[in-house]
Amino acid sequence: MDNDYPESTALAPLLRRTNLRDAMALKQYRGAFPGTYQRATAKEKIDYLLLSPALRKHVLAVDVCRKGFYAPRKWESFENINEANKDRFQASDHHCLWAHIEV
After folding, report:
1. 78, 70 contact by CB (below 8 A)
2. Looking at residue 90, what is its pLDDT?
3. Does residue 97 form part of some domain?
C-alpha cells in the first residue's frame, strides 16, 4: 500500500468505495496515538492495514509498535536508541502497525 494521508484521492477507492476497513479504526485498536509516521499525530497517519469483513471478525488486537522511533516524551524506545544515536539506530520513521488475527 502506498504511504498517503486518509483524505488522499489516491486512497479514496480503497478507503471509501470498498468494504475494506483500516485496522486502526476498529474497536480492537489499543493505541493512544492516531498516526503511524514520525510523531504519530493525526496528520501523520500514512500507513494502513486494510481488512475485509471476514478478517475483521477474527481480529483480537490492533496496535502500533513505536519503539523503533525515538520520541522520549511520547513513548519508550528500544534501549539502544537515544538522543545521541537516533539517526543511526532508529528502525524507521514509520511505526509498525500490527493486528493479531486468529483464523
Report:
1. no
2. 85
3. yes
Q: What's the CA gap between 102 and 96, in Å, rounded?
A: 19
Residue 81's Cβ-count burial label (10 Å; 0-12, 13-18, 19+) is: buried
Q: Which amino acid is at 86?
A: K
Q: Strand (E) positions, 1-103?
A: 21-22, 50-51, 59-65, 96-101
Structural domain count of the chain: 1
Which range marks the domain in which residue 46 is found? 12-101
pTM of the model: 0.85
Residue 4 lies in a domain: no
CB 64 within 8 A of CB 33: yes
- Residue 59 included in any domain: yes
In the predicted structure, residue 12 carries a pLDDT above the cut 80: yes
Region 26-47 average pLDDT: 93
